[in-house]
Amino acid sequence: MKKSVKFSPEVRDRAVRMVAESRADHPSLWSAVESIAAKIGCTPQTLLTWVRQHERDAGQREGLSTADQKRVKELEREVKELRKANEILKLASAFFAQAELDRRFKS
After folding, report:
1. DSSP 8-state assignment for residue 59
2. I want to staple 31 with a disulfide (CB 3.0 to 4.6 A). Which of 24, 26, 55, 100 is the partner?
3. Sequence-ordered alpha helix ranges (H) in the chain
4. How far is CA 20 from CA 3, 7, 47, 58, 87, in A?
5. pTM value surpassing 0.85
6. Domain boundaries, given as residue ranges, for the chain
7. Which CATH number, 3.30.70.260, 3.40.50.300, 3.40.50.2300, 1.10.10.10, labels domain 1-63?
8. For 31-84, how does the pLDDT look when each residue is reduced to its tens digit (9 = 90+)?
9. C-alpha 103, offset from chain centre
């Protein structure tokens, strides 16, 4: 299995800028992406993903921006933690309610 290469944010930004600058020299976005991807050493699909995300962040394309995606992920994590806490509280409540009932009947 091939190890994935992580590109720094600076490389990503530069590649996206290069695609935007060379867009006029190519007949389509895909051909511009293929040209730049070969120069920076990533796959064209990866670079196209970066370009589309940049467009979403800039408001030029429909979809969630990077900040929105991060916020949704944080909220989902918080909801998961709160659901766990609620389940623990329900179990504790049931345990103590049963203990109280047992105590009353023994007296």
Report:
1. T
2. 26
3. 9-22, 29-40, 44-57, 66-106
4. 29, 19, 12, 13, 51
5. no
6. 1-63, 66-107
7. 1.10.10.10
8. 999 999 999 999 999 999 999 999 999 999 999 999 999 999 999 999 999 999
9. 51
